[in-house]
Design goal:
five-stranded mixed sheet; three-stranded parallel sheet; 15 helices
């Protein structure tokens, strides 16, 4: 769901392609002549190995093996992905949304059912990542990565234990706190601090969570996504919630940055999965691509580059030990047991969330009303000036 750069030495990835997975390993096939086919893939930014510094270029390797070209573009939030699809401005063959957005798209009839006879490598997906709440019949999605949410912190300025979301409301860090710029993640933090479920349908609980976010707002430097990396690395910000897959990269590259998963309240366990949207141009090519990404060798090289956790034991066994044993990548079971997955909210709850999020970002209903009044005043002044100039011009004539 997210956007990592690179964790380990880049030369490891090509080597992984020549290690045999526990299951049957096939030698890489010879290059296939181009077929003229193309698939259109829409994924999170920096969420696939692309050949940088000698690592595996996943899309190029897919084209080499199948002859199918890949037109690849990126999005930054699940909500922007959804808006792009609903708006009808583009057509894609493969998309990689997160759990709750997959659930919403299933409910709204936006996804194609998969033909798993074209995805034999689905056999490598571990049972615990199948038939999850967002796709209980496992007809529409194939897991790509998983992870949890925690908090980056600057060790020079944050010295107390980072074991609770409460620290993001600590006034001593005013102006040095970053917050997610998407509603589910931001509200999720407030909900966990209040002891509520991420997937509550209780209107009062959502309103209470919004009030908590409004209380936090004066302390927040900015609501951001990828900008978290630059702001934390430069010391401009000291605290920032984000995804664990990106944490290992930042922590490895900057010894001043730590990462902790709040254990007092629990956290979000997320899964990003590969899906095919309705109206795709090349379903068979899309299923071939999904199957390719599930190949343990490809999955291992891909995960080693992007820094997220694999849902395949066969791929995990190909990864370096310092990755497999890193609790950021693979947290202990007690943390996973104290986590919760987002699922799609009922329409009325989603509408309430959108309204409350707008209020949080704008500063609350009172400030929103003040802004509208102010804009109305400026508009009235502008209209008055235009009218005065017209009357003056007529008199001069």
């Amino acid at each position: 769901m997210k956007k990592a750069k690179r964790l380990l030495p880049a030369l490891l990835a090509p080597l992984l392609l020549f290690q045999a997975p526990p299951a049957q390993a096939a030698e890489a096939p010879e290059a296939v002549p181009l077929t003229g086919e193309t698939i259109y893939v829409y994924n999170w930014g920096e969420y696939i190995a692309d050949g940088t510094d000698g690592t595996l270029d996943v899309n190029a390797e897919f084209t080499r093996r199948t002859g199918i070209q890949v037109e690849y573009s990126t999005f930054d939030t699940n909500e922007s992905l959804y808006s792009k699809l609903v708006g009808g401005g583009a057509s894609y063959d493969v998309i990689i949304p997160s759990d709750y957005m997959i659930s919403r798209m299933i409910n709204e009839g936006m996804l194609e059912k998969l033909d798993f006879s074209n995805i034999p490598n689905f056999q490598y997906i571990d049972e615990e990542y199948r038939n999850m709440g967002y796709d209980p019949s496992n007809e529409y999605s194939v897991p790509y990565t998983w992870g949890v949410v925690g908090i980056f912190y600057n060790k020079d300025y944050v010295t107390e234990p980072v074991d609770s979301w409460e620290i993001l409301w600590d006034e001593q860090y005013a102006g040095k706190i970053l917050m997610f710029d998407n509603p589910r993640d931001a509200f999720g933090i407030a909900q966990k601090r209040l002891g509520f479920s991420f997937n509550s349908t209780d209107e009062d609980q959502w309103i209470e969570a919004a009030a908590l976010l409004k209380e936090q707002k004066p302390l927040v430097q900015a609501y951001v996504m990828d900008q978290i990396f630059d702001k934390m690395e430069s010391g401009e910000a000291w605290l920032a919630p984000y995804y664990a897959g990106d944490a290992a990269t930042l922590v490895a590259e900057n010894d001043k940055i730590g990462f902790a998963i709040p254990t007092r309240e629990g956290t979000n366990f997320f899964v990003d999965a590969m899906c095919i949207p309705k109206g795709c141009r090349n379903k068979s090519g899309a299923e071939a691509y999904i199957n390719f990404l599930c190949d343990p060798e490809i999955a291992a090289a891909n995960m080693e580059y992007i820094g997220y956790s694999t849902p395949e034991t066969a791929a995990k066994e190909l990864l370096p030990e310092d990755v497999v044993n890193n609790p950021i990548f693979y947290p202990p079971q007690e943390i996973l047991d104290n986590s919760e997955v987002f699922v799609a909210l009922p329409e009325e709850t989603s509408e309430l969330l959108d309204t409350l999020w707008a209020e949080v970002k704008m500063g609350g209903p009172g400030q929103t009303a003040t802004l509208l009044v102010t804009l109305g005043g400026f508009l009235a002044i502008y209209i008055g000036i235009v009218a005065y100039k017209k009357i003056k011009r007529k008199r001069e004539l």
